[in-house]
């Protein structure tokens, strides 16, 4: 429906990095045997992306697929296309023990952009962001809540968290990007 | 008196004067000063009063070990007590006041304690305040509270910001003196990622003060060149003003960076707490000089010899014009030489050693300084400042041989390696007989996750005191750390300095060794807590043999400086009193942080709005705009009620209840947990999770279910819907979604991993609205879409469809007893759906209601609430929920526990309704009392209230409670004594817990 | 502040991403068990000073449970392994035994 809005409706903050809520993003939790041929085939059919390996995230023309745990993927597609993608995956995996669920509205997505984007993340997560590179999905803690992030390029992090704490995550990201709080090491 | 010299002062910029204020007096210092050097430079020798006896105190040290010179720093939102002047960088406009005195620093009433000091020995408080209790409350406590404490408690909210930074490195080097720099150079050469942190604003540590040459160039030049080389390396991070504060398990270290203490209000975070993971940590933390214990060693003007030297060389400040040096080792001679070179008088070097022939002593003699061998100080003369010393034989009892006029005393009792960080995480120490100090035992380092040592020491922190030894040791440590962290082995030679010849120090724990009790009562060990040699000896006489007990009894080392100066001297005195060697006495436990760190740094960004995450539903903004009064439910904020401007909360709640029962209420139920359980074995799994038989629930139907822990206790409840052949949707309590999700995953991953079940938490995917009241169907029909009639969608069924154009899943369930639909829509459309309901509902009298109205309506219907009727010790049977416990199942979580003898005890309190005889409301948590008294003479308790409300529907107080044999006592009256002091007893009749619409007619329409 | 290697997602996880879940390899006793068996299952825990087997959950990570063999005294981690086992891997037990001959062993 046209009256759908994301948690923060595209809020932005410009500090030494830019923090932007990315609006509505289609997201599907896909549980099942990631080693099964049918699973790889279904994922490829919906997103055009090959099955990512442990901890990896790959993007294709139809969407992005992230390895979330040994039996879970996060499939990112257009928000409007999420329900259709769920249906397509469910149908393709009908014979498998698998579960596809639309979780688009249960999430919020942010981009943190800037030369020192790693520093913003390193203020909030105990993960070693200095060792991160595009293609790696890291599920971790963002200050006091769970979250996940990966790098789109050297200067951009894509951050995913739960919708209910979108305001909190935006605020801690913005706070971490406050001018004057540059650390100067990453 | 102390003063600023015309020359010297390598760290200050005399072209940049700075003004500051101390105790209302305007003073001048220079850029590069510490507050301590600026105070001394301004002639302020007296800077505080001691904790117990309020004795006048001056600056004694030049670094973080300073026990005396603590001040209240700043004002208003930047006020902070107990700040060390020696580690406070001067800035223009600095404002400080001295502590622990009244009415003024110069004239302090509390000093009366000093005159009765012999009546206030160690353990005085413990001995005196034993009894009677009344005396403590009315006499002792007010006095102690008035006179105790150091700085004041801040009154205003901290205006500064703080943050964390998580950093990962191969090698962390703590300390940026020559040892730290040499270790860094060696470690960096291995290719490892290296970080060096230095707590002061300067690299090089003490070496620039002491001079010497490294690799053929002056030490200061070597330091500059090394820092520059390290700065240019990609794998090295250098950080000033950052203390390695603590070392913890598995290579975790805390770095306390004082980003903007010296530039307050410049917009940067004041402190940054670095949470560092290092594979290897090198402690290049240096050494701390020990005081000597002689009578009057706390009088302002008595300072550590190394500090006296630092003030001259670093800041161009002299402690006095005539300084007596007293020592038991060679190092203090450097101070005498520096003072002499600066044109100041050194009337005598008093050396406890019998014959001193070392090169440094010869140099002193050559400079014309008298050396008195085998001597000690019998007594320091003076009160608020030093006027002279009496010399005595160290071997004797303290008869004065001669009196020497002076205005400062520079003392050195030897140096102790800073072993704190080594010890934080389990590194062991050994006693070095030659140097008389504890040093790290390299064979017993702190161990990491791989069982291998992860901490090394470098330089003085290892116990190496000469420059040459320091460099050799530090280079080896750096190479070892780099290699252990995965770098390549280093081949470069260590930096070199000329070897020095020293004469061994001689341990001196009391000066003179046979000092009388009168003298020992004036020998300070712990300056901040006023612990003297006599106190430790008293503790030993009274039977305190453990060093940890002695510490607590005497308070030795318990002040904010944590005994950095007093520890070893205190241990030695205790060992002597116990007639045992020092290593047998051992040390007290070293705990992080190394020096106090700010609460702000510990909290990081978690203050004000960011104190904790607040979870918000898609309709949260509407609630806020509507003036909702929120209550926390887990991290959620839910509207408790929506008071109108002229309403009390109670009035608003009553209005919401009545409106819902009579017309139409809306509840934001989005916080309810929603878990999808799916798979071929999902039915079997559901039967294990719930006490009910869930596998037989037909598709399209709903069932209220209970979940218990393996203890049998009721843990969560909610309505379960069967979605399709292999899928169930479980509603949990608002606070319970994550907990129950984890609980399900636990059983699936760790017990029944061969069961084919997936669980997905879709709580936040859906916004959920309860549409409740006689008009509920009307508003949905007005919005249009799916058929919500009684026939198509009867009670306890659900259906998918559209409502007003919204994709919706509608559950015919009721927690209020009214006609009720709970409608789930995608969260992104939650607000729009809420708005649509409000608009369409206007003609039907729609009003939102909050959690309190929800609670009242469920209590009127006798429905239980997790957390009210349950408290982790309640089984479903206590609540009369036997109907929800399947008898057909062999097993479910909690079943076995519910068969235990205590669980089937007929005397367990059981849930009933309670109706007060006079219609009043029983206070929350009230207990019911029965006949007789217990062994303590208290009335026997026979039950308690679990939920109690004023029911606007029934216009009287209603309650539920757990009562012994309750269901068998219907109609009986029980007593609930109130605790308001009036002795009032509320009488309530035991009744059925369903107060309203017992037949369920209202909801079934 | 421990770090444990999560065998499920391969991350070296900070303790603040993890949740401790108590002793590992506890055998469940349900209906039909004796009072003593059930009491042992519910309440009796080893709590040793030394080698211990624990359950952990990578809660702020992949969300999966795993087992860890750890020394409660020295904090040494001997290894982490799948939660889907009834006993620690033999190789791990042997390695621990080799390191600590005095250890009573896995039982």
Strand order of the largest sheet of chain C: 3-4-5-6
The shape of chain C, in one word, is globular
What fraction of the residues of chain A are assigned to beta strands by DSSP?
25-35%
Quaternary arrangement of the chains shown? Answer: heterotrimer
User: Can you summarize the main beta sheet of chain A?
Assistant: 6 strands, antiparallel
Q: Kindly report the name of the CATH homologous superfamily of chain C.
A: Folate-binding superfamily
Q: What sequence of helices (H) and strands (E) makes up the elements of chain A?
A: EEEHEEEHEEHEEEH
Layout of SSEs?
The complex is a heterotrimer of chains A (186), B (1005) and C (107).
Chain A: E1 12-14, E2 18-21, E3 26-31, H1 37-47, E4 57-60, E5 63-69, E6 72-77, H2 82-92, E7 99-102, E8 107-113, H3 117-122, E9 138-142, E10 145-153, E11 156-162, H4 166-176
Antiparallel strand pairs in A: 1-2, 2-8, 3-6, 3-7, 4-5, 5-6, 8-11, 9-10, 10-11
Helix pairs in contact in A: 1-2
Chain B: E1 3-4, E2 13-22, E3 25-31, H1 35-41, E4 46-49, E5 56-58, E6 70-73, E7 80-84, E8 94-98, H2 112-115, H3 124-128, H4 133-147, E9 162-174, H5 178-189, E10 194-197, H6 207-210, E11 213-214, E12 217-218, H7 219-231, E13 236-239, E14 242-248, E15 252-258, E16 271-283, E17 287-289, E18 302-304, H8 305-315, E19 317-318, E20 323-327, H9 331-341, E21 349-351, H10 359-366, E22 371-373, E23 375-382, E24 386-393, E25 402-405, E26 408-412, E27 415-417, H11 420-424, E28 429-432, E29 437-440, E30 455-457, H12 467-484, H13 517-520, E31 524-526, E32 531-532, H14 533-541, H15 547-554, H16 567-578, H17 582-585, H18 599-603, H19 620-625, E33 629-633, E34 636-641, H20 649-662, E35 664-668, E36 673-678, H21 682-689, E37 702-708, E38 714-724, E39 727-732, H22 737-750, E40 758-761, E41 766-772, H23 776-783, E42 798-803, E43 806-811, E44 820-826, H24 830-841, E45 846-848, H25 851-860, E46 909-916, E47 927-933, E48 939-951, E49 956-964, E50 973-977, E51 985-991
Chain C: E1 3-5, E2 12-14, E3 19-23, H1 35-43, E4 51-57, E5 65-71, E6 77-82, H2 90-99
Antiparallel strand pairs in C: 1-2, 3-4, 4-5, 5-6
